[in-house]
Write a structure and sequence with these properties.
9 helices, alpha/beta, Rossmann fold, about 270 residues
Length: about 270
């Protein structure tokens, strides 16, 4: 399968490069705003349609990860990168006849459930489950841009000849390799000097990640299933590992695409040494 990976060298994209690039099933083309010393790269900005359009020719699928990645984005940043860029990617896929489109959506499309229930929702016994049928509740321009992307994807698969399948992964917390564990955000804060190990802030970050963590290998497996499964034309899945205290549903992904997460934040009681 020939796959175009946009935003290839971000923290989420590199999880796919690390775990899927050597698989015989895939031939990846990498698109990013910067070149890479080890990979041939289409250097382009998704906000520039003419620059990205040739990269879509001959592809069987697109995994669209490019965009402004944080909730602190201004409307202008979000508009260019996540709204215009999303429409450009879908239009290029449609024009090139790409059959399958996998979109990096975000838990922030429903982020107000966390805002409303934090910090209690970070700990066992909260009794909250959010699934793909619950009302959209974005917490930021970033979250709203992901809602837009999901809706636009549905429009394309239902009104255009291509793509014929669109799957959105509402990613929870995928981190760089050195922080790919449920203490990752807490340890990152220590490394930045934001708090001390063992502080209340440290412990709360660890508690949150034990619910929100999606290991890099679990994210790669979920993406692989979205690329391979003969499923419905459109669907939404929560990108989270099988964490005991998670509040996002994974049963839908298990049933529809055969997602089989390997990791659980509850199995960790300390960061790696």
């Amino acid at each position: 399968m020939d796959v175009l990976l946009t935003g290839a060298y971000g923290r989420v994209g590199t999880a796919l490069v690390d775990h899927l690039a050597d698989e015989d099933a895939y031939e990846f083309t990498y698109l990013d705003r910067e070149n890479h010393p080890e990979h041939e790269t289409v250097v382009a900005d998704v906000a520039d349609y003419d620059a990205i359009r040739p990269a879509f020719d001959g592809k069987d699928a697109v995994v669209h990860l490019a965009g402004y990645p944080e909730t602190d984005g201004t409307w202008r940043e979000i508009l260019e990168n996540n709204v215009v860029g999303m429409q450009n990617a879908l239009e290029a896929a449609a024009d090139a006849g790409v059959e399958r489109f996998v979109f990096a959506s975000s838990n922030h499309a429903v982020g107000m459930y966390e805002v409303e229930n934090a910090p209690e929702v970070y700990y066992p016994g909260h009794g909250i489950t959010v699934d793909h049928t619950d009302p959209l509740r974005p917490d930021s321009y970033y979250g709203t841009s992901k809602v837009f992307g999901e809706a636009l994807g549905r429009q394309y698969v239902e009104t255009r000849d291509a793509p014929t399948k669109f799957y959105a992964i509402r990613i929870c917390s995928v981190r760089d390799p050195e922080y790919d564990h449920p203490y990752g955000d807490a340890e990152h804060g220590v490394d930045r000097g934001d708090w001390e190990r063992g502080s209340e802030a440290y412990d709360e970050q660890a508690a949150r990640m034990k619910a929100m963590w999606q290991s890099r290998r679990d994210f790669a497996q979920m993406t692989d299933r979205c690329l391979q499964v003969d499923g419905p034309a459109f669907d939404i899945f929560y990108g989270v590992s099988d964490n005991e205290r998670r509040w996002f549903d994974v049963d839908h992904a298990r049933e529809v695409i055969g997602y089989d997460p390997q990791d659980d934040g509850e199995k960790w009681d300390a960061p790696p040494e």
